[in-house]
Amino acid sequence: MSIERISRIRERTILAERAVGRGELKTTKTARTRSVPVPAAPRRRCRRRAAPFAAGAVAAACAALTVAATAPGAPAQRPSGIHRIQHVIVLMQENRSFDSYFGTYPGADGIPRRGGRFTVCSPNPLTRRCVRPYHDAADRNRGGPHGPDASTIDIADGRMNGFVEAIYGALAKRCRANPAARGCSLPATSDVMGYHDARDIPNYWRYAKAFVLQDHMFASVPGWSLPTHLAMVSAWSAKCASATKPMSCKTELARPALPLPHGVPGVTPPGVASPPAAYAWTDLTYLLHRDHVSWGYYVANGSEPDCEDDDALRCPFKFFGPRTPGVWNPLPFFTTVHTDRQLGNIRPMSSFLASARAGTLPAVSWVVPNGHDSEHPPSLVSDGQAWVTKAVDAVMRGPDWPSTAIFLAWDDWGGFYDHVRPPRVDATGYGLRVPALVISPFARRGLVDHQVLSFDAYLKFIEDDFLGGARLDPKTDGRPDSRPTVRERVPQLGDLRADFDFSRPPRGPLILPPRG
């Protein structure tokens, strides 16, 4: 049985199961305690023949043949449009601006220049000179502050020239008052105006040429890793007065409650009474669980990728893994995940790779690296690119590739230069622009997507694909919270479906060497 045949069978399975979930097909319980459509015709037996596929894929194929043969009006219709995507993977790296990775990419809204010379610069308050963008071949970068205050300084009322000021502004004031003050003798250099290109990140540029590059993807919020990861799974970053009262939450970008490893089953040290963070508002996993849509949040073991101080550029080593809540793993502190008994869906990266090989990926996957592989300064760019390539290669080599969409992005700008002012879509606004790619067998080859997007677009795509367009909306989702905006509905937000061509057969994989 070919991969394409299994893909078609599994498409029919998912369509039938969705129809069952919506009540469009009657169900009965089988001996396997699984709901399947009531047979309208004799069942076809599925022989399990030896094949170079995982047992899970064969089982799915067998189940699909039964559904196809027994559902009313068989044969089942093949999915069309967005529903040809049965697996959505959000792969989130860290701390890069769009211009720092794709500012010179052909056809993209890149660093402004005239006559081959960059026309923008960022003043250095220590040297009183204006620093222009430059090619930075260094594999290890430093970056700059990237909290809400730094965002305001960088944007500079729309002039987009405060990136060096954010690093040296306070130091410059101290040095003018006291030239002998600590730090005043240090060289006034930074790398926030540096950019990389195909020479430094060849695989990312090859993905852009083969699939889709999005040049107006903005972080959902103007902040650092914790608020952006909260927004990534819930379209909001907030702080709540009570873990049981979703209406007690208020927008918070700088200091959402930190997800410290206390109060989580299997993590809380004996005798520790420190209360856990309480994320009481509604996240996407609530809707997925309610509609029986599978999901997984995959965490690479290692060091924590970001500091718990939003403007810190360095921080001590902290272990990071699926059982260790952190700024990149906030789901264990969402009330809904506990109430729905979904903590087991937060898994190690090894589980993702195994599922990719076996063809048993859930409908929705979030994938986050550890500090070493995250590209968060001072981690090496090449290490992050290699880790991403291995993850993408694993999906492409597996049987789920023909029905998969991978959304690759970086969570915030990391203090690096970008020339595009973020849109103000509500009182919070978007954060600065970040690199983003769509990798899928249905992605439009070589497209540069100029739509205004944010990570909310990922939630919107998942909701349209698997949840019938249901939104994280207090008026309709059955679990009202106090969020001020339904982010998936803001008029400025583009539609990711424009990045796909579902009228064509799925394309084959693009396997790349991890080191480019």
Q: Could you tell me the radius of gyration in angstroms? A: 24 Å
Main structural class: alpha/beta
Q: How big a fraction of the residues is strand?
A: 5-15%
Q: Would you tell me the overall average pLDDT?
A: 83
Q: Give helix % range.
A: 25-40%
Biggest pleated sheet: 8 strands, mixed
Shape: globular
SS elements, strand count: 22
Strands ordered across the widest β-sheet: 17-14-18-3-19-20-10-21
First-to-last CA distance: 33 Å
What's the number of helices? 12
What's the quaternary structure here?
A: single chain
Low-confidence stretches: 18-72, 262-275
Task: Describe it.
The chain has 516 residues and is of the alpha/beta class. Helices cover 25% and strands 14% of the residues. It is built from twelve helices and 22 strands. The protein has an eight-stranded mixed sheet, with helices on both faces. A hairpin with an 8-residue loop joins strand 12 (238-240) and strand 13. Helix 1 crosses helix 2 (55-70). Mean pLDDT is 83; it is low at 18-72 and 262-275.
